[in-house]
Structure formats: C-alpha cells, structure tokens
Amino acid sequence: MTTTDHDDAELEKTGLPPVAETVTRPLAVSGIVAAVWAAGIGLTVLTTITLLGWIAAPRGALGTGLPGVFRTAVGFWLMAHHAGFTVPRGRVGLLPLGLMVLPGALLFRAGGWIARTGRVRGRYRIGVTHAAFALAIPYAVLSGLLALVASSSAIRPSAWQALLLCFLLAMIAGGLGAARTLVSTTNRAPWVAMLGLLPRRARSVAAGVTGATAVLLGFGVLIFLTSLLFHLSEAKNLYDVLKPGVVGGVLLVLIGLVYLPNAALWAVAYAVGPGFAVGAGTSVSPSGVFVGMIPAFPPFAALPEPGPAPAVSLFALAVPFVAGAVGGVFTIRYQPTEATEAAPLWGFVSGVATGGVIAFLAALSGGPLGGGRMAVMGPSAWQTGLLAALEVGVSAAIAAWIANWRLARRTPPSGQAPLDDDQDTEELEFEEPDPVLATVDEPLPEGVIPLRKRPASDH
User: Fold this and answer.
1) pLDDT at 343 over 80
2) Report for 115-124, 135-144, 338-347: range of highest mean pLDDT
3) What ranges do the domains of the chain cover?
4) I need a labelling partner for 150 at 20 to 30 A (CA). Which of 17, 33, 120, 202 fits?
5) What is the 8-class DSSP label of residue 169?
6) Membrane-crossing residues (predicted)?
C-alpha cells in the first residue's frame, strides 16, 4: 500500500502511522446487509451441493428442474436452522444439529462485521445486544419469507419454527461474533476475554456451565463412537441393505457426520438416566433396552442389543458427576467467595443451569420422523434436563465447596487483599477501544481495564 504526502507529513509530525478511519453505517442498515450476506452465502453453498446431488442422483429425487432444485436447497437451508417440515405422512423434526455449523459460522462473522461498522451506542454489553438484535430481526424475517417460498404440496416447512429458531441462532451466534470483535484488542485468549463482558458472578456461573456442558458432550461423543466400534458388523449390514453406491456412500457418510451431535446428546441422555426412544413404545436406558424395528441408518447400529443394558455401559452413569465436578471447580476458579456456605450454592446454581442447557439441546436432538411408530424419536427433554440438573448440581456443589476451601487456605492475612480479589482471577485489559468500536463511547464493563491511550507527541 502506498502512502501519500499527507500521510508522510502526518508520520513526520506525530511519529505515529496514520490510522485508517472506520466506515460506520446506521445499525439497522448494517444488520440488514449482514443478514442478507449470511443467508445468501449459506444458500449458495447448499444450492451448489444440491445441484451436484441432482446431477448425480435420479432427477426426481431432489426436485424437478432448476426451480425444484432451488426449492429443495431452501428446504435444506431451513433444516440447517433446525426448522421442521410437514410431509403427507406426518411431520419431520429429527434434524441434524451438525448442519447448524454452517449458518452459525456465517452469523458469527456477520455479528462481528456489524460491531465494526454499525453505529452501536451505549455500554459494551448493551452494544453487543443491539448488534445481535440488528442481525436477528431481519434474518428471522428473511427466513420466514424463504419458508413460504419453499412450501409445496409435498413438503411444507414450518414458518413459525423458521422465524423462532433463525432468530435464536442469529442472536446467539451474532452476539458472540460481536463480543469477539469487542475483545479483539485484549491480551487474553478470545473466549476467556469474552467472559469478561459479564458481571463477576455471572462470569463464574457461565464458566461452570461451559465446563460441565463440554464434559457431558465430550463423553457423549466418546460413548457413541465406542458403542459403534463394538457394532461395526451391524453397521456394515445396514450399509449393504441401503446399497448407496459411490456418490450415495459419500453422502451417507456426510449425513452421519452431521447427525453426530444428535447421537452425542442421546448418549448423554443415556448417561444421565432417562435414556431415549427410537420409536413409540421403545426405550434405551440403563434400566433396559426395549426396541423393535429401527430405520436402516448405519449410526443406529450403535444401539445395544434388546434386554438388560450391557454392564460396561453402566460406567457411563458416572459422567454427569464428573461433569459436575469440573463445573464446580470452574465456578469457584473464576469467582471465589469468602462465605464458605455460599460456595456450594453457586456450584449447585451452575449445575442447574447446565441441566437447562442440556434440556434445550436434548429437545433439539430429537423429534418425529414421520407418523406412526417413528413419531417419537430421541430423549425426553424435561426428564433429561431435570436429572442432569440434580446430578450435575449436587456434584458441582461438593466440588465448589472443596475448591473454595482449598483457595481459602491460601487467603492472605487480614489487611491484605480479600479472597474475592484473588490474583488467580485476572482482570481483562483492553487497548484503546476507538479503532475497534468507534461508536461505542460508554465505559467498559466491570473487570475490564482500558490500557493507556497513546500519548500525543509534541514534536
């Protein structure tokens, strides 16, 4: 990039390189532009994949003609946001959670762009909320219109689910993207620094919930893959029944990958206790396995044999208690307390919040797969969430009490910094915020310390 004489003069005068001005737009305009960009890129990717499948597969499978292919791609785009649809034989709500990665990543980028270019006013936390709303509202309206476009006599997407779930995904992913942009000048790891935007106690609870949920989901993936490894012959038999061919085999593997988060959450439901259903009147839980005919889909080969639950699978019952221990330690690690009796309370609160998160994810992981027996698929959200809250909450309370007690032993003598100001809980430091969010002009949130502004040069 070349410099002008004006830039050289400014460099010679101030001793500092010129700072490029950030172009700002009205927040509503930035939100609309970002929403159209995120939806357009997602539709382009899915339309390309659908078109390739239409060329390789029988022509009637993915629509008739290019308009039908586009309508199918819009349906896939809505499915990626977990919006269900109705077919002549019933409703389909068992959708892959892995597809949400595509729109989630695009909305994350869009939220960061809004934070950089939109005229966001108010405190930093409020600014992040405004950026998220500016993206979520037009994105949800656009998704509702696309649901009407994709509707046909054979498939009718749920417009209200498209509006609600697209709004929630845009709020969460876009808000995280805006927050990530805000902390881009911090000297801490980005995801750790983002916690600094929360109040101190909310920060500690969020850290505990994140740690416990990550442990549950990680063990869920491990349980599923281990069970599938022990049933590879059954998976091969199901694959042979389908006879997908080369192209179909690749698509089948991709479908299995995008359903991996669903399988992990079903394994979490098994570890927590209630288990899950693979059809009306069926149950897969530690108390026993009662299944009938199952869909010819290779991941279902991981299901245990009907009868008593395998003894080795009962070790999975320890998973929620391990997750609670991690969550309790994280909760106290981020915010110790001088009141010993309060530590178990905050640990239990993080466990209950973890149960709420698991209940929400369990509800998304299941759903009907048409009518008849397949109308009931997946775990019970309220049962899984309730037992997860109790199991994770109790172990988190115990772990939080022990962790706080150990920290209290290292409390400095009276007259020095109290436990709440423990040096382990470092505060965030931000550089001059103007180059990042030029229009956010209110003070930083509690716990965020701005670095010194660059001194003006006299020469």
Assistant:
1) yes
2) 135-144
3) 27-188, 200-409
4) 33
5) H
6) 27-56, 68-87, 93-115, 127-150, 162-183, 204-229, 241-260, 267-291, 311-332, 344-364, 384-403
Q: Please name the residues in contact with 296: beta carbons below 8 A apart, sequence gap of 6 or more.
A: 238, 241, 242
- Nearest CA to 336 among 208, 248, 235? 208
Interval 213-241: pLDDT, tens: 999 999 999 999 999 999 998 888 888 88
Burial 250-268 (b: 16+ CB within 10 A, else e): ebbeeebebbbbbbbbbbb
- Residue 173 backbone zone (phi > 0: left; psi -120 to 50: alpha; other: beta): alpha
Tokens read off for 357:
């998160």
Give me the phi and psi of 428, to 5 degrees please.
-85, 150
Count of CB atoms situated within 10 Å of the CB of 436: 17
Alpha-carbon span 343 to 212, nearest angstrom: 17
**Dihedral sign for Cα atoms in the order 265, 271, 274, 280:** positive
Q: How many CB atoms lie within 10 A of CB 350?
A: 30
Tell me if the pTM is above 0.90: no
Residue 347 near residue 401, CB atoms below 8 Å? yes
Give the tokens for residue 110: 């869009």
